[in-house]
Design brief:
Largest sheet: none
Distance between the termini: 71 Å
Radius of gyration: 23 Å
């Protein structure tokens, strides 16, 4: 039989570990709530055109690894809002956000690679990033994918993929996508259109149930 003193000791240790775990969890949640509040303050300042306050709120968060802050800070550097326009700094923050799976960072980094803005054009990387963003429901990325697959000169054109992404963006209410889709349809066979719509339906059955179909928050 185990000695009561040992049982009591183990019980106390177990209780202490549980309490420590809950304390740690509480601190993590509190830190996350504070960071969220700071980000919302920064975003609100940005939307009001108070770029100095936005920069003050967002920069520490971005440096601490907040992906949303990184994406928005990248935009500010790209557009020269509250800071001198600096594509290299924009690229730095977009990369940091994209590496964490942030859809806005993926979108903007994809566009930079697609257009060759301050970097060498990298179409395969651009399409990869845009698709990662589009698969999270970012309709701007879906439109860019449609345009890329329809118009690219340095990669095989794919009208079926282009139609699929235009159609998905149109379903989210994008004002550009319906005309792009309908114009493209005139260049396609009925079988191609049916295949593209089938791909869109398949995408919705997988990705559409995992993420909300939403428009991009900052880059309109």
């Amino acid at each position: 039989m185990r000695r009561p003193s040992l049982i009591a000791c183990e019980h106390n240790i177990g209780g202490w570990k549980t309490a420590q775990l809950f304390c740690t969890l509480a601190l993590v949640l509190a830190s996350a709530a504070i960071a969220r509040a700071d980000f919302e303050a920064g975003k609100r300042a940005y939307e009001q055109g108070d770029y100095a306050t936005a920069l003050k709120e967002l920069t520490p968060l971005a440096e601490q690894g907040n992906a949303e802050a990184q994406a928005l800070l990248g935009l500010m550097h790209f557009e020269g809002q509250g800071v001198p326009r600096d594509p290299s700094q924009a690229l730095k923050w977009y990369k940091a956000a994209a590496e964490q799976g942030n859809p806005e960072g993926q979108l903007q980094l994809g566009v930079i690679y697609l257009m060759g803005i301050g970097v060498a054009r990298n179409t395969p990387q651009a399409l990869k990033l845009l698709k990662l963003s589009a698969d999270q429901g970012t309709r701007d990325a879906q439109v860019f994918l449609g345009l890329a697959y329809r118009n690219l000169q340095d990669a095989p054109r794919d009208f079926i993929q282009a139609y699929m992404w235009f159609h998905l963006a149109a379903l989210q209410g994008d004002p550009l996508a319906p005309k792009q889709r309908d114009d493209l349809e005139r260049l396609m066979t009925p079988d191609q259109v049916a295949k593209a719509r089938g791909l869109a339906a398949a995408w919705k059955s997988v990705c559409g149930t995992k993420v909300p179909l939403r428009r991009n928050k900052y880059f309109e």
